[in-house]
Structures are given as C-alpha cells and as structure tokens.
Amino acid sequence: MITGKYPSLRLRRNRKSNWARRLVEENYLSASDFILPIFLINGKNKKQSINSMPDVYRYTLDKIGYVIDKAIQKGLPMVALFPYTQQIKKDTFGTEALNENNLICKAIQLIKKKYKNEIGIMCDVALDPYTSHGHDGILKFGKILNDETIEILIKQSLLQAEMGCDVLAPSDMMDGRIGKIRKALDKKNFKDTQILSYAAKYASNFYGPFRDAVGSKNLLKGNKKTYQMDFKNSDEALREVALDIKEGADMVMVKPGLPYLDIIKSIKEKFKIPVLAYQVSGEYSLLSNSIKKRLVNKDIIFESLVAFKRAGANAIITYYADRIDKIL
Ligand code: PBG
C-alpha cells in the first residue's frame, strides 16, 4: 500500500493548503444526510423548551408548519415525530398508541395534507410514550411480554401507515416484530411503507434527556436491559441486524451513535445495506452543554457528524438537523 518512503514520500504534501485538502477529502456531508426529530405536545401556540436539551423544543400542532417549512427549506429529506403524552392518557397497555386521534396521527395527517411528498415522515413503533410504566412493551409480573406486545405494535404500525407515515421505525426491540409488521403491512396493501428497524439498539444511559422530552423519565420502572442490547456486545448486533434484514427491514439503525461507531462500521461492511445512526439526546446535551460552557469549540458538532459518515452511516438522526446549514 505504501509505495515510497521518507524523505521522497511526504504525506503532508496533500494537506498543504485548503484546496489541496478539499481535493482529497474522503467524506462529505450534505443536508440530505440528516433527519430531524420533532417533539409534539398538546395545546395551542406553544414552543416549549425542554430542561435537559438546550435549544430543542416541544411544538403544538399549530406550530408544526413552521418547523416543517424550515426543514424543507434546509433540504432535509425526513423528519421523525415523537409525542409528549399527557399523564392522564397513559395506561399499562399504552392504549393511546392506537387512538387514531392521538398527537402522532394528527401530525402525520396534517403534514401529509399540506406538504404531500416534499418531505418524508418517520415514526417510532413502540409503546413507551404511552405506557404508565415507561416501557416499550406490555409489562406483566415484572416482565415485558414479547408476543403480546407485537400484536399491539402491528396495530400501531397499520394505524400510522394508514395516516400516511412513510417510514415505520420499530424501536421496541421485541423479537420477531419486523417480519410480523411487514406481513401485516403487505396484507393491507401498504407495500411502499418502508421499515427502518432500530436493529442494534442498546440499553443505554445516553437516552436520559429524550425520556424527559417525551415525559417518561420519572415513570420508568427499572431499566430496559431485558429487551435492549447489552453495550458490552457487538456480535449480537450483527445477529440482530441479520434477522431484521431477513424479516424485511429496508434500513437498519444503530443507536446510540458516537460511542457505537464500531458497530456502524461492522454492520455496513458485512451487510451492505442502508445504515442510519442516531446521535441520541444524551450525546446532544453533552456536546451542547460543553459548547455553552466554552469547554470546546462549536466545530465539535461538525466533527462528530463527519465521524458518523466516516464509519459508514448513510444518514444521521440528530437534534442539530434544524441548524444543519450553519453547521456545514
Ligand atoms: C423509545 C425511544 C427512545 C429513543 C428513541 N426512541 C428511548 C428509549 O428507548 O428509552 C431515544 C432517543 C434519544 O435519546 O435521543 N423507544
């Protein structure tokens, strides 16, 4: 691979000036690489700040046009919708997930009616925003029930597809849900509805601020270690991905992001399919707070995003996506 040697060979020659560096750069980011998560809340005319996430807000539906307009204008291909559910609407089964008038359903309809196919909509398939115990599935005698949860997830998927959701993103980590959801979608003729599987989703400490944003933080009983992956493992991620691809996933996601670049890289190398990375809430708040405290320069954001691309990610979900023009 190395053909010469010092002093005739000097790698610094290719870095001698800005134009020379641009000429040989291996990775490039554009707005098309980013997905913007949007938090929704009930009510009117609210842009509500979130304590644990600087510069991130919850929006009421009447404000959503403003957020989507900006996303389209910046060239983002897709947004991801997340609901903050009022406590009184939560129960042990997450019933609100199947309410066709819930925040997510209303938001999808609103966006699709106004913007048609100008921007993609992605929605989580999981029960945690709706359960009184904060878990992604049905909790019984201290256990999360797999197969019973899938039956609800299938209904949630069909409902969201019916409303016009483009990309369903099961983030629950139940075994076998991708195949069952795909089958149910096809049976109802939702053949074009894509599935983005949160295939390698770790039981992570980096999700704290998100749980605050969707109002499940103080509700969560115990942890999610019996369904989300152990962060000590990487072979297991490849098995999860292999199964989800077999079951019909169109794209897979690795989550969290920056501490898991090794996982992104091995999945990309092994499976050659679209891999998305999620720069999660804890990563976002750590970076943002450090910038605010002037511990680091704001260019750290760009550097962190390029790292995802270098590892092999096709796209990145990040709370910085609404400011991507300035960052790039
Ligand atoms: C819910 C879900 C979570 C995130 C996305 N979907 C939290 C969790 O699994 O507890 C985390 C996103 C973030 O931290 O930014 N299934």
Using brief descriptors, characterize the structure shown.
eight-stranded parallel beta barrel, 328 residues, 12 strands, 19% strand, TIM Barrel, alpha/beta, two-stranded antiparallel ribbon, binds ligand PBG
Descriptive account of the structure:
- The two termini are 32 Å apart.
- The mean pLDDT is 97.
- This protein has helices spanning 18-24, 64-74, 103-115, 146-163, 177-187, 208-213, 235-247, 261-271, 281-292, 300-311, 324-327; strands spanning 34-40, 47-50, 53-59, 78-83, 120-125, 138-140, 143-145, 167-170, 194-201, 251-255, 275-279, 315-318.
- It has one domain (29-327): Aldolase class I (TIM Barrel, Alpha-Beta Barrel), CATH 3.20.20.
- By secondary structure, it is an alpha/beta fold.
- Helix 8 links the parallel strand 10 (251-255) and strand 11 (275-279).
- The strands form 2 sheets. An 8-stranded parallel beta barrel has the order 1-4-5-8-9-10-11-12, surrounded by 8 helices. Strands 6-7 form a two-stranded antiparallel sheet.
- Bound molecules: ligand PBG.
Oligomeric status of the shown chains?
single chain
* Count of individual helical segments: 11
CATH class: Alpha Beta
Helix content: 25-40%
User: Strands of the largest sheet, in order across it?
Assistant: 1-4-5-8-9-10-11-12
